[in-house]
Amino acid sequence: MLRVDDEFIVNVRYQCSAAVPVTINVLGYILIVIMSDVFSLSDCDVVGFDLDHTLCRYHLLETSRLIYDSFARYLVEHKGYDKELLTLTPDRWDFCFKGLVMDLEDGHFIKLAEDGTVMRAARGTKILNTEEIVQHYGKKQEWQHFNSLKGSFTRSAKYYFYDNYFDLPGALLSARVVDQMLQSGNQRILDFWKDMMSAIDHNYNTSAFKENTGMYFPSVKKDPGKYLQPCSEAVKAWLRSLKNAGKVLLLITSSHSDYCRLVCEHILGKDFEELFEVVITNALKPGFFSQIPEQRPFRTLVNDEESTEGLPSLDKPGWYSQGNWAHLHELLKTMTGQSEPQVVYFGDSVRSDVFPASCYGNWETVLISEELEGEGAQTSDMKSKDADAEPLEKKGKYDSKNMKTPSAPSEQWGSYFVDVCKGLEEEEEEGSLKYTWCCHSINTYSTIAIPSIEAIAGME
């Protein structure tokens, strides 16, 4: 087991006794997905964690099906969309792929290379061939909004970046809505997006857990074990060893406090609060890192209800809501006795976790990328033992057998890390191998990337 007083060192270029390079085999190429020359966990004063898909791993098949059904039923029952959206066959799930961008103006879903080249594209769920891509994006296959997206990862009324597993079922649903719109002759693709945002808000808004509205929270509350994977004893022991070694442990999540509590009690136990000196919920990352205190003050919580008045500063450890990096930084200086405390933050999202923590907070970052173990994973129903028991008339036509897990490579989209980019002049079997924009972003903003917290906690 890796102990906190040991040096956890990752070396990009040279493998030695202390180095732990993470490699994957993609399209016959060995990739080393590690960014920093040297990273030592023992040098860090503070260790912070995101919650969803970081400390808490989900049963992705069950969770994806629940999220899709939650959104689809809202569109059908509240907005009058075609009931066909409720019917899904296993092959449909291959469309779910982290890192896609949806162009809201034309209904295209695109996979980008590190330089903004469109590597693959689909209109709705229909994959476009090279000729169609060149016809739409030009000979250089350039996406017009790439410079806007790559600089800040900001949301836009013109596109949507699918960066996490909570998003991916929405990508599949949106693509199927585009299919229906095109079949009916409706070319105004953007018209449906407000309904999609309403579906997301209906299921995920901060009051939905307490009010038991939507489908997502009621389902997880009823059977958390179906969707949440408890942390292993190795992970729990590792967290305790960090604290016993004098590290300050943080939990920073955009989930609301009531859902955070349910998740943490299930994965870590009823005493989870003893592990963390500071818990921040409803952090609304990436704004937590980029906005100034006046824009996003911290708020106290009483029975999971936020106070109406923001705090002028953060003076002591505890459980808070919303907030900002600047006030947290001042508290960490006091808690560690360091003028510039060394912080490492673990998270699964490039957009919400590693990019802002690195750029605005100057923190070391560890990206949790299940694709590191998913590349090469076969379609499996190993984690879907409960799926077949669900009534089809209530859940839509689902068949978990041969359903692709979202972290596995896609037949339609290929690898998350690299792909062959072809132009019209290149022969069918040729083309230039390029890193994807997501892989480039991981290399740019992450200190290291690992497939799970378990990968560190379980090291000998």
Mean pLDDT: 85
The quaternary organization reads as single chain
Query: In DSSP terms, counting alpha (H) and pi (I) runs of 4 or more, how many helices?
Result: 17
Roughly what fraction of the amino acids lie in strands? 15-25%
Helix content: 25-40%
Contiguous runs where pLDDT drops below 50 for at least 5 residues: 1-35, 376-399
Distance between the termini: 4 Å
How would you sum up this structure in a few lines?
With about 450 residues, this protein is α/β, with parallel strands linked by helices. Helices cover about 30% and strands about 15% of the residues.
Could you explain how this protein is built, in words?
- There is one protein chain.
- The chain is an alpha/beta fold.
- Helix content is 32%, strand content 17%.
- It has 17 helices and 21 strands.
- The chain has helices at residues 60-79, 130-137, 146-152, 168-183, 193-204, 208-211, 216-222, 224-227, 233-244, 257-267, 287-290, 325-336, 350-359, 371-374, 392-395, 437-445, 454-457, and strands spanning 23-26, 29-32, 46-49, 57-58, 101-103, 108-112, 118-123, 126-127, 159-161, 228-229, 248-252, 278-281, 298-299, 301-302, 305-306, 318-322, 343-347, 364-368, 418-421, 432-435, 448-450.
- The strands form 6 sheets. The protein has an 8-stranded mixed beta sheet, sandwiched between helices. It has a 5-stranded antiparallel beta sheet with strand order 8-7-6-5-9.
- A hairpin with a 4-residue loop joins strand 5 (101-103) and strand 6 (108-112).
- Helix 1 packs across helix 4 (168-183), helix 1 (60-79) crosses helix 5 (193-204) and helix 13 packs parallel to helix 16.
- The N and C termini lie close together (4 Å).
